[in-house]
Structure formats: C-alpha cells, structure tokens
Amino acid sequence: MEIATQEAPKGGGQAQDIRKRPAQGGRGPKRQRARKEKPVREGDAVLLADVRALFAKQKLRDTIPHDPSEHSEIPIASSEESHTKEESNRQTPATNGTPGLPEPFTETEVEVLEISSTGDGLAKHPSSNQIYVVPFGTPGDILRVKVIRHFENEHYSTADFVSVVKAGPLRDDSRINCQYFSRCSGCQFQMLDYSEQLKHKKVIVEKAFKNFSNLPPELIPLIGDTIGSPLQYGYRTKLTPHFDGPPGYLSKKDKMNGARKYFDKVPDIGFMQKGLKKTLDIEDCPIGTDAVRMGMKRERLRVAEEMKKYRNGATILLRESTDRVQNDDEAASQTLPNTIKVTSASHTEFKSCVTDNNGTSTEYIDDFVFTSIAGSFFQNNNSILPPFTQYIRDNIMPPSSSTGPPIKYLIDAYSGSGLFTITLSSLFTTSVGIDISAASITSARENAKLNKLPPSQCTFIAADAPELFESITYPQDETVVVIDPPRKGCDESFLSQLLTFGPRRVVYVSCNVHTQARDVGVLVSGMESGGSRYEIESLRGFDFFPQTGHVEGVCVLRRVEDAGSATTAAE
C-alpha cells in the first residue's frame, strides 16, 4: 500500500505526510504521552486491600433482596437545589455499566462507612458503589469533599476533606486540640475518643494479619487489645519541621555563573499539608513534649534572624534530652534557661531540646538511661516505653508450664542503641545486640556502661542483620531472638537464617504491622530451604502515636517442636 506524500520543497525541507493535519502556525502536532492510570499511592497494598474488601461488601449488600420501602442508598444530607442541579450536570458518562462519577475538582457529599488501615475514611456516594478515600472522617460522618481523581479499575476515588455536613456518632470536634487539624498531614484522629482510637488500631492489626500473612484464620490467635499511651498529647520527644528553598528558578547556566536565589521573606516552617506538596506554616505542635515545643518556637525565631544564610530549604531537628538528678542533690533546686523542670518523689528532671544532629540526647526508661546521637533513631514516645518494655519482659520467656531447658541467651537483632538488649539483660546470662550501624553500636556500648552492665553480660556487635547468626554459638533451645527491623521488615536472607538457627522463641516488634504480618507468615509457614517453624503465642498493638493511624505491633512466637505437624496445620 502506497502512502501519498508531497514532493519535498525546495531548500531541503522535509516532505510532509498528508495523512496528518498541519497545525496552525506551521508547527507539527505535539506528541501526547500516554497517561497510565495508577493509584495515587502506588504500591499501597494496605489501602487497596481495605478498598477492595469494602467494595465487595457493598456489592454483596446490593445483591440481597430488600424491602422496597427501605432506602437502598446511603442517606446524604441535602444541599441547595442549585448546587445539586449543577453537580448532576457534572456527572461523567457511565462506562461499562458503571454509574457516572463526579468530575475531578468538583465538590460533592459522601458518607463515611469505615476508617481504613491508613487512617483515611472510606466513604460512599449514592450514585455508585465507588469508594471515596477521604481524610479526617469517622463512620457515619456526612462530609463535603473535593473529588481529586478516579481509579475506576480499582473502584475508588481520592478526595480532599472540605467540611463536615453532619457529624457521625463517633465524631466530636470539641476534642480537637490543634488549629491546623484537617490541614496538617500529621494527625488524623483528634476528633475521636481515645478508646475508639485504640479499638481501631486493634482492627488495623487484625486486618494486617488477615490480608498479608498468607495464613489460614486458625493459625492467627485472637488479637489482644491495643495498649494505650499514658500521654495522648505532649508525648513526641522528636519532631522535624522543615522549610522549602527560596522561590524562583535558576537554569544550569545561571548556577554555573554563580547566580543564587535568596529568601525575600521568612519561609513557611512546619509540616506537609494534607494532600498537597506544600509546607504548612505551623508555629506549635501539641503532640510534641513541652521541651520540643519550646525548642520549636526558639528555632523558628532563629531561622527568621538567620534567613540570609540559607540558600536552600532545610529540616530542623527538635529532640528532647533529659538530665536527671536526685532530689537531695543541690542541683535539683536550680532553675536552668531553656529547660522544662519536672519533679517527682525521688528525682528532678531538666528537659531541654537538642537541635544539632550530631549532638547527644539522653532518655530515661524507668531507672535505665540511654544516650544516642540526636539525629539517630530512638523511640519517639518516652511515656509508653516503661509499659512497653515491661510487657516484653513479661512475655519473652516461656510459660511456667512449658518443658525444656531454661532460656539463658538473648539475641537482639536490629538493636540500635541497645533498648531491648539492656532493658531485658537481667533475665539472661548473656545478651548480645547486633546492628549494621557502627555509630549505634558505639552508643549501645556506652549505654551498657552507663547502666553498669559488664561485657560478659551485655555485648554488642556491628554487623548486618542477615549475617548475624554466622558467629552465634548459643544453644538454640536456650536462646530467644528479638527482632525490631525498619518499616520494610526483614529480608528473605535474614528469615532463612533465623529459621535455620531455630531459636526456641522469637519476639517480633515492628512499627509496620503489615510487613510484620508478612514476615510472621513466613516464620509460621516455614521456607522451602528447611529449618524450624513457629506458631503465634500472642499478638497485640501498642499505641506509640496517639491521634494518628500508626500502631506498633508485638508478636510473640514459639518454635513448633514437630515441624511435620506444623506443615500439616499450615496446609
């Protein structure tokens, strides 16, 4: 088949394909990039699992015969007639039998059905079974939202919170303790009673193991109630507000010629605005401790005074540090600048805010003392650490009715600056903490000295966790392993080595119950390479971050002595 073309014009111009319509102005048409639909949080299997479950539930409900006199659609509070008419005109055409959806960036009203494991509300519009993911909602709320984007293949849409039309039974906005709530991306649950927050976080753990452990229900025990934080506000010992760089654009050539951007005013300093790539200016954060909040005010003033020194944006470290003295010490009566003084029956604490990433911060957990590099990781809610570490002490050993030799050895994988190695050391003949960070190991060894623990009782090794069992000679029947990995969980190599070593007990602590569920599923089901298998003895959450959707998981596992029976059960 021949393709007709025009003769090449004189002067060396290119022949024009007459199949294409020439663009006005003589320029050819721009090539349009194919836009691939993907979830707004690509890879967020947690949200999608909740959306799919709710969508399936709604579809099932709609197929069940019902009394025609009953309302079959979710009751939505009526708005002004003119707005309703306008909204109706903006519905997109139905596709594949799916009712039309509101156009992006228009407003509509939805009813929240439940809260997802990510902390967002899952809502429904009466026009379809499409699920709307909207923040700051509680079950039963009628919310006005701005629709952002539809993902019809996954049956959900994202939307921004606009206002509450009608509060549901669980919502009480008088509980809100921050003027930036519903704009700041930090807190999600300030309108909920704390007991309801704890109930929801128990559900998060339940759904995590249901959706991501790949275990049959009979191998997952009843989830324990979530242990709450003694403080629901004023608990965060670390905050990291930030500000963006100066506005404007500099080309590469401008930069090579020494051109620089400057701030013409004090930038917004705070945290990300929910749903936007924008920093929200926040002068105070009520979930921070008093020392951290004091430091935040001081650092905001410092940045304003030193604004001309900055050429780029920056993140500000605010980390609480505590000095403790006994009440009979003369120092207990003094008053120090830029500190918060807290007096108890036996001692006085002076709490300050460290802003140097390479500085040293000090924390006390009961009578244990820990120092660490201020910019490094340490748990950010000191108030819950005493009951948290006590719970692990109470559950790390086998029940008194169990048989077998006594457990004498502790391996603390991902040990950091030694939290578990040190607080659990009195239970064991020898405890060893292992971490990939040499700086963390240096802090851990110093902490062992501060707590008067000799190397024969408490030691630390700098090594990558997947290689930690290569040098371990402890008898497996007398050993327990504590795991506290980063959010991504454990890799396959580590889990394989753990199953090959086969300690008698494992305590898995995690800030991400979904990757925890995945890894625990491997420990229970076993691996093709062989090794031990485990069963879950207990499982529950700890609320390290009240007012947010985060929950810490603690799973205690015991080794199955008969691997064959474990295989049968898993199948």
Automatic annotation (TrEMBL):
Belongs to the class I-like SAM-binding methyltransferase superfamily. RNA M5U methyltransferase family. GO terms for biological process: methylation; RNA modification; tRNA processing. Residues 60-73, 80-89 have a biased composition (Basic and acidic residues). It comes from the Eukaryota. This is tRNA (uracil(54)-C(5))-methyltransferase. S-adenosyl-L-methionine binds at Q379, Y414, D435, D484. It comes from Rhynchosporium secalis. It is an enzyme of class 2 (transferase). PROSITE patterns: SAM_MT_RNA_M5U, SAM_MT_RNA_M5U_2, TRAM, TRMA_1, TRMA_2. InterPro entries: MeTrfase_TrmA_AS, MeTrfase_TrmA_CS, NA-bd_OB-fold, SAM-dependent_MTases_sf, TRAM_dom, tRNA_(uracil-5-)_MeTrfase, U5_MeTrfase_fam. Catalyzes the formation of 5-methyl-uridine at position 54 (m5U54) in all tRNA. May also have a role in tRNA stabilization or maturation. Keywords: Exonuclease, Hydrolase, Methyltransferase, Nuclease, S-adenosyl-L-methionine, Transferase, tRNA processing. Transmembrane segments: none annotated. Its EC number is 2.1.1.35. SUPFAM superfamilies: Nucleic acid-binding proteins (SSF50249), S-adenosyl-L-methionine-dependent methyltransferases (SSF53335). Residues 1-43, 60-104 are annotated as: Disordered. The active site is at C511. Residues 93-163 form the TRAM domain. The keyword Cytoplasm does not apply.
